[in-house]
Amino acid sequence: MPSRISAARRRKLAPPRNLPVPVDLIFEKLLPLYGPIEWRPRYNALDELIFTVLTQHTSDLNAERAFDELRRRITSWEKVLEADVLDIADAIQHGGLANQKSVRIQKILGEIQERHGQLELEFLKDFDVEDARTWLTELSGVGPKTAAVVMAFALGMPAIPVDTHIHRVSGRLGLIRKGTTADDAHVMLEKLIDPDDRFPLHVLLITHGRQICKARRPLCADCPLVERCPSKDTLI
Ligand code: SF4
Q1: CATH number for 127
Q2: pLDDT tens digits along 43-99
Q3: 178 and 212 part of one domain
Q4: How far is the CA of 106 from the centre of ligand 1 (A)?
Q5: Which of 33, 63, 203, 224 is the most buried (most CB within 10 A)?
Q6: Is 145 a catalytic site residue?
Q7: Residues 109, 88, 41, CA angle at the centre, nearest 5°?
């Protein structure tokens, strides 16, 4: 019999009914602006995971420099696992927080080696979404967002990484309930969005957040969703 807590949590994670801005309308209005959208993996799954660790608290550009330098200096993940952590920190210094990130990277690699027996994550393609998410989030320091990035970008799985842009824009459009945390938004949005639509919707919302629905001063007058957006009057 389900517990009261799990029933309450299920209700908390249920997506809102009667969306003020239906998902179809978001596609209709934003796809001409930001499309076409094509899925192409940028890294294999383990590279994507380590890259995502490097993006924490810095720009993608700095993370790319750190990632490239790490791969140049220490040429395999097996060697990174065995390397002196100070050498890893030195290689990734462009990404910031190098001391913490170098320890985290080695810990993650060690856990993957211990649990899977080899340093790769492509086997997760054979898992269903929830099992892959659970496997990844059981790694040290890997939360729902990092797991969703690996699943969506490297493994082609229907996950929606909720970063600050997705969290803000989906909240303003009423796709998630008021007060929903970014971690809970992963579950809520995935309940709401058809699997095939999750990757393109992720790209549309993140691009909209960067270009028009900005954090401080959203350009509502230029937004093709303004007529239906429940936040426009509070922000204009
Ligand atoms: S109308 Fe304004 S708040 Fe609403 S989605 Fe557009 S830019 Fe964001």
Answers
A1: 1.10.340.30
A2: 999 999 999 999 999 998 999 999 999 999 999 999 999 999 999 999 999 888 999
A3: yes
A4: 41
A5: 63
A6: yes
A7: 55
